[in-house]
Amino acid sequence: MAEDPFQQFDDWYRTWRELTDGDPTAMTLATASASGEPSARVVLLKGWSPEGFLFFTNRESRKGRDMAENPRAALCFHWPDCGRQVRVRGTITEVDREVSREYFHSRPRGSQLGAVVSRQSLPLARYEDLATALREARQAMDGQEIPLPEHWGGYRLTPREIEFWQNGQDRLHDRFLYSMGSGGWALQRLNP
Question: Is 87 a catalytic residue?
Answer without folding.
Answer: no
